[in-house]
Hints:
The protein is an all-alpha fold. The protein has 6 helices and no strands.
Amino acid sequence: MIDDPAQSGIVRATALSLLVPSAGPGQAERVARAARDPDPLVRRAAATAAANAIPPGAGVPVLTSLLADPIRTVRLEAVGELATTSGRPLIRRSAPSSIVSRMSSASHKPRTPSGPSIR
């Protein structure tokens, strides 16, 4: 169901949220594919699944890739999941420099107001 493009994004995101923890390589690949899905609901659910449904070592690359997502809520979910999950850190002390560099490259440009200026 997660990989079925005929299903709506909310259905696929819900299916991702129902994954149980598994060390199987198929589940890690499924979550990685979901992180590349065109639908932001699915990508946001993939961040949660990367932290909770696959081993942390397999989830960190998925989560760091989502730090550059164009949708803010997806990035925020990835950051939150990288910080902690159920009180256990997912990243080691050596990892933050790579994460910080990924985050700085993903920073968005400030919005400029459109329309007539008010004086």
